[in-house]
Specification:
The chain has 1 helix and no strands. The protein is mainly alpha-helical.
Length: about 50
């Protein structure tokens, strides 16, 4: 019984970690997208 509780606690901790990593990667992806979009606009304006 104690092993089942430990396993459930470990699983919950792993799920929380995975969600944290996913949120962090999403933030990085959005930042990269914004930077790329801004640079693209600047290049288009510069070349006109």
């Amino acid at each position: 019984m104690a092993e089942e509780k430990a396993t459930a606690a470990e699983q919950k901790e792993m799920e929380e970690r995975a969600l944290s990593v996913f949120a962090s990667e999403r933030r990085e992806d959005l930042t990269a997208l914004i930077i790329a979009f801004t640079l693209a606009i600047l290049v288009i304006i510069t070349l006109k």
